[in-house]
Design brief:
Largest sheet: none
Number of domains: 1
Distance between the termini: 34 Å
């Protein structure tokens, strides 16, 4: 049975790598394994159970609803322009500072492809006009997007929290030293590569490469009248959640849905937006979150149910019990490789965290650190992938080949994941 399961798993991830629909691949594979084991209804039960998860679904829906409202009101533009205005003043450190800014953006806007679609048309032309090579400018934006790993609104970190019965802000604070260590490696690593390739300054390519629409973008960033209250809105939920944690305790404790809904209402007041239009946008975001993220989690649950039905979970646990190092390496690098090949960090992360992480205690490991390491590996692996949506968006804006971005961030993300694994799983855990 286990060998049949292994074949199905290999074929499943091969299909995902070929850009087949990940939700369908995971669901069909899980259903097939349940059928083989003689328990087809187990797959359906796992799917429906995940869809009504009272912990995860409200977080996903409210976080996505808030993101849609932030975009509709233009608060994300005020946030990005405020940061860029100061970054472009320091040309000698433009690349590392831009990575840092995007990384912070990705905490507030925790969809890599969504973030790229929103800010890449602004930031990449600005970097190019400031003298950064187009491919390096795109790589800078791409590299910063792994900051979603420490987003308090992240549905993938919420999965870890549901396993360990720990709130997401607490987990984020637990692994924050590892993420900051990785951030330092990312910023300095890409800076070194940009200097080595002589792509950090001095680019004077033809202006038509950027498109006529962006001809005055640099001046627009400098002259844009930033509303500081609007600029605050994208990060306000994160601030409220951190200040309310048990570790800080400066204000009352909020759940993620509470923080998102409260900040949505404050956003409407700050931006003087129609509540009717905002509600339509919020509901659209909720629907998108449910359709894309919650459905993927449910499909991963079916996949896990199938593996469990064939006895594969128990077999994997026994292997990992023999060596904690195997479990730690599988978490950090197994998800990294799958995400790099497939372009989907979500599928790789969810497959590991729904199948292996719940059994971390049996292996003598903390599920928070193991699950977070799997998420970090998946996020960085996706950043390396030339077929990931975020990579394609950045390359398209810069008018370069996606492989040009992969070549520039490759060594950096490998080094970042290595440092992250060491800090999160060996120093902090």
């Amino acid at each position: 049975m286990i060998w049949i399961g292994l074949i199905i798993i290999v074929l499943t991830f091969a299909a995902i790598i070929k850009k087949w629909e990940a939700r369908a691949c995971l669901f069909i594979a899980g259903l097939l394994m349940c059928l083989i084991s003689g328990n087809p209804l187990g797959a359906i039960d796992a799917f429906t159970k995940a869809l009504v998860n009272s912990f995860l679904v409200p977080i996903i829906a409210c976080a996505m609803g808030f993101a849609y409202v932030i975009n509709m009101t233009g608060c994300d533009k005020h946030f990005s322009y405020l940061a860029l205005r100061h970054v472009i003043k320091i040309k000698a450190f433009l690349v590392p500072l831009a990575v840092l800014v995007i990384w912070v953006f990705s905490i507030a806007i925790n969809s890599p492809a969504g973030l790229a679609a929103a800010v890449a048309p602004i930031i990449i032309p600005v970097l190019i006009r400031a003298g950064v090579h187009p491919a390096m400018a795109a790589a800078t934006v791409l590299l910063g997007t792994w900051g979603e790993f420490v987003s308090i609104a992240s549905s993938l970190m919420a999965v870890v929290g549901s396993i360990s019965h720990t709130d997401v802000p607490t987990i984020v604070l637990m692994v924050l030293p590892g993420s900051l260590a990785g951030l330092v490696v990312s910023c300095l690593g890409l800076w070194v590569i940009s200097i080595f390739r002589k792509e950090d300054k001095g680019y004077t390519g033809p202006s038509e490469d950027l498109g006529n629409a962006n001809a005055n973008l640099l001046e627009e960033v400098r002259s844009f009248k930033v509303n500081y209250l609007k600029a605050l809105m994208p990060i306000l939920p994160i601030v409220l959640l951190i200040l309310g944690t048990d570790q800080v305790g400066w204000i009352m404790k909020f759940t993620v849905p509470q923080a998102m809904i409260l900040c949505t209402m404050l956003t409407l007041l700050v931006s003087w937006t129609s509540p009717f239009e905002a509600m339509r946008k919020f509901c659209s975001g909720m629907g998108e979150g449910f359709a894309s993220i919650a459905a993927l989690i449910a499909a991963a649950g079916v996949f896990t149910a199938g593996m469990n039905a064939l006895g594969m979970i128990d077999a994997l646990i026994e292997v990992m019990k023999s060596s904690q190092h195997i479990a730690k390496i599988a978490a950090s690098w197994g998800t990294f490789v799958i995400a790099a090949l497939s372009g989907s960090g979500d599928a790789a992360c969810l497959a590991f965290n729904t199948s292996i992480t719940p059994h971390a205690a049996a292996m003598g490991l903390d599920p928070n650190y193991l699950g977070a390491a799997a998420y970090m590996g998946a996020a960085l692996g996706r950043t390396l992938s030339p077929v990931a949506g975020v990579t394609l968006i950045c390359a398209s804006v810069a008018k370069v080949d996606p492989m040009d971005l992969t070549k520039r961030v490759g060594l950096v993300v490998i080094a970042t994941n290595l440092v992250g694994m060491i800090v999160v799983q060996y120093i902090l855990a």
